[in-house]
Amino acid sequence: MSKEIILHIEGLRTEFQTERGVVQAVNDVSFDLHQGETLGIVGESGCGKSVTNFSILKLVQYPPGRITDGQVLYNEKNLLECSDEEIRTIRGKHIAMIFQDPLTSLNPVIKVWVQIAEALRLHQGMSKKEAKAKAIELLKLIGIPDAEQRADNYPHQFSGGMRQRVMIAMALSCNPDVLIADEPTTALDVTIQAQILEIIKNLSHGRKTSVIMITHDLGVVAEMCDAVCVMYAGRIVERASVDELFYDPKHPYSIGLLNSIPRINQDSDERLHSISGAPPDLIDLPHGCPFRPRCTQAMDICAQKSPPEFSIGGNELRTVACWLHEKEHSHG
Amino acid sequence: MGNPDILLDVKDLKVHFPIEKGILLKKNAGWIRAVDGVSFSVRKGESLGLVGESGCGKSTTAMAVAQLEAATAGKVFFEGRDLSLLSSEELRRARMNFQIVFQDPYSSLNPRMRAGDLIAEPLRIYAGKKIISISENDIQKKTASLMDRCGLSPSFADRYPHEFSGGQRQRIGIARALSLGPKLILADEPVSALDVSIQSQILNLLKDLQQELDLTFLFIAHDLAVVEYFCSRIAVMYLGQIVETADSQTLYQQPMHPYTRALLSAVPLPDPKSARTRKRIILKGDVPSPSAVRSGCPFMERCPDVMERCRVEAPVLSDLNEKHQVACFLYDSPSKQI
Ligand SMILES: Nc1ncnc2c1ncn2[C@@H]1O[C@H](COP(=O)(O)OP(=O)(O)OP(=O)(O)O)[C@@H](O)[C@H]1O
Ligand SMILES: Nc1ncnc2c1ncn2[C@@H]1O[C@H](COP(=O)(O)OP(=O)(O)OP(=O)(O)O)[C@@H](O)[C@H]1O
Ligand code: SF4
Ligand SMILES: [Mg+2]
Ligand SMILES: [Mg+2]
Questions:
Q1: Do B197 and A197 touch (CB under 8 A)?
Q2: Which end of chain A has the least Cβ crowding within 10 Å, N or C?
């Protein structure tokens, strides 16, 4: 895999100031997104998936949020140092994002086609007429029936699945290099989810768009992704190709997670594996490894020092942040 | 009276909600047919899964079974007794036998009550109404043992719901539902709001409780893998109707209804190799509104196999064999008599 790196994230830290204390939402996160690749970011609720991606596009609200360290390189430019104006051009035109909740990110009082057309006019300088035609074409592409008529609807007249597809149409309107999809199907039914995933898949294959796919659904990861980062308590604890993660997971948390999902055709008399306890409070992280309180294999060192990311067999795309894998790490 | 093995028997249940227009003079502008002629039965000790997409009527079915929502038509028999014929006093007594566990562990617990009181509340109410006789001392003991059994330290009894995590709150909901010693648990998406690692803890707990207490479940979920794991038999709902029922294995290995097939093929599989090779059926369009006046099969708009007949007549759930029922003209189901 010597594909071109399109987005390079290094040492990202983001925190939130709250009444109870400082929430360490993103804690030294680094990863690369390669040309044409779909990279999954998985982890349980609150582990920092959304904040990581908000940080990439400088969308973290201050206060209470603050990016305290790190860089995000896109075309050799550090996005975190861009002016508001520069970053606004990059957002939408080069890096587009589909948000977790489509209702909050669509304007309720503006017709659907106008919202799609706005981006086209802003970033591609189309005339109003051209933009409308293109907007309707996009609505057709994402499978909205009677696109000409439905284009005049307001968001609330669309179903959840249709609104999510409108978000995708908007994100794709400018042929971005990178698409960040934050749980694009979580609120949707499985058959509608399958429609949406199919659209994203076709686009990433057809247009060679690189995709960051944020989800807590390991099924979606298996269906969609080439590579995966597993997050836990604000950190990436394992990175791997999709096959490596599913067939040879290394981190005790990844192993526990994969064993916890009931599988179709699993013997019903068998108990499900489960990880005891709950994820830690990000304000009061345990000393050492954040997974230690739930880990069945914890050793003395785990309570003392937080494990760095060890690469397995010298492959920098295959890392595990766990002391059990220190020896597999070849230096250099 | 009927088959003694059958704990719950639901016959042609309908729940229609009026659509009201106008602010002062409310006019009925039609009906939402949330549940539109559903029949099923649950045997003692069995767990029947009810799956289907959002809005297809799963929760409304459970609420109507529990007599918390009025049925527009149809009957619910519990241990052979028609619940609609019971006096309110008799119904209260009967209710001890069936309890609901709700989806949302965040909103279903009164935030101003402590965990111990939440769990003890049903016992206190029934003792207050002299339906059961139990001393306050025994209520306390029973609460502590329920907490313990559901994986909550009894020392948490004084805490309020917001001090618990989602999984712990669901444990409180389960302990509360068990307090009166029910025979049937109506579990409405009990693990849908939980993260995977917590979800498996709760599923294990429910399975253990089922064996220990000989519980029967009506288990509602939209996650097919969860339902298949938990349930011995599954009913698939679409637009207010049951379109297929079979034991779990048969349903997964030989789905017959085109909707069940599409649903199964749409579930993302946590296995990249099979995900890459399998053929998926991608349906077109969205689930129609349950208020639209319609004829024909509920699935006709999205069905890849739709025929002329499906647009004018509605198929009725009928036996493929003793253990497998389907409502689809591909299998010569009879038409509904109007
Ligand atoms: N505005 C905020 N103020 C305080 N804390 C915040 C804020 N936004 C996020 N956080 C905290 O940051 C952490 C990471 O949140 P994030 O939204 O990234 O989680 P996530 O992994 O996307 O979870 P989910 O799967 O639920 O979407 C959480 O613990 C959250 O409580
Ligand atoms: N009290 C009510 N008044 C009017 N309509 C209702 C009411 N309760 C439910 N409905 C409607 O009835 C239909 C079935 O709803 P129900 O909640 O039973 O679906 P569900 O299968 O449980 O869905 P979900 O998976 O989203 O929980 C929906 O269209 C819903 O909007
Ligand atoms: S570092 Fe230690 S505590 Fe953390 S996951 Fe590895 S073995 Fe478990
Ligand atoms: Mg999120
Ligand atoms: Mg429901």
A1: no
A2: C
3-state DSSP call for residue B325? strand
- Say if residues A39 and A226 touch (Cβ distance below 8 Å): yes
Does pLDDT of B52 surpass 50?
Answer: yes
pLDDT digits (tens, 9 = 90+) for A90-118: 988 899 999 877 667 788 899 999 999 98
Q: Rounded CA gap, B209 and B212, in Å?
A: 5
Whose tokens are 């096959």? That residue is: A243
DSSP character string of A171-230:
HHTT--SEEEEESTTTTS-HHHHHHHHHHHHHHHHHH--EEEEEES-HHHHHHH-SEEEE
**What is the SS3 assignment for B228?**
helix
Q: Which of B74, B193, B299, B232 is nearest to A269 (CA)?
A: B232
Chain B's closest residue to A264, CA to CA, is: B225
- Contact list in B for residue A231 (CB cut-off 8 A) is none
Across B266-290, b (16+ Cβ under 10 Å) vs e yields bbbbbbbeebeeeebeebebbbeeb
Q: Which two tokens stand for residue A99?
A: 């948000």
> For residue A305, how far is the Cα from the chain centroid?
28
Residue B19's identity, in one-letter code, is I
Rounded Cα distance, B266 and B280, in Å:
6
Instruction: Decide: A258 and A246 in contact? Cβ < 8 Å.
Output: yes
Distance CA(A72)–CA(A46), nearest Å, equals: 22
Work out the burial of residue A66: count CB atoms within 10 Å of its CB; fewer than 13 is exposed, 13-18 middle, 19 or more buried: middle
A245 φ/ψ sector (left φ>0, alpha ψ -120 to 50, else beta): alpha
For residues B174 and B108, the answer to whether their CB atoms sit within 8 Å is no
* CA-based nearest distance A144→chain B, Å: 8
Rg (CA), chain B: 21
Spell B303-323 as b/e; 16+ CB within 10 A means b.
Answer: beebeeebeebbbebeebeee
Rounded-to-integer distance, Cα A196 and Cα A162, Å:
9
Condensed to tens digits (0 to 9), the pLDDT of residues A201-216 reads 988 888 889 999 999 9
CB contact under 8 A, A222 and B275: yes
Nearest to B200 among A265, A273, A278 (CB): A273
Neighbours of A36 (CB within 10 A): 17
B189-211 pLDDT tens trace: 999 888 888 899 999 999 999 99
Looking at residue A329, the DSSP 8-state letter turns out to be B
Q: In three state form, how does the secondary structure of B8-21 look? A: EEEEEEEEEEEEEE
3-state secondary structure of A45: coil
Q: Where are the alpha helices (DSSP H) in B40-114?
A: 58-65, 88-95
| Strand order through the sheet with B241-247 | B98-101, B184-188, B216-220, B47-51, B233-238, B241-247, B324-326, B318-321
Chain B contacts in chain A segment 180-199 (CB below 8 A): 189-195, 197-198
Question: Please, what are the domains in chain B?
Answer: 6-336 (3.40.50.300)
Tokens 């957002």 locate to A91
Instruction: Tell me if chain B has a CB within 8 Å of the CB of A263.
Output: yes
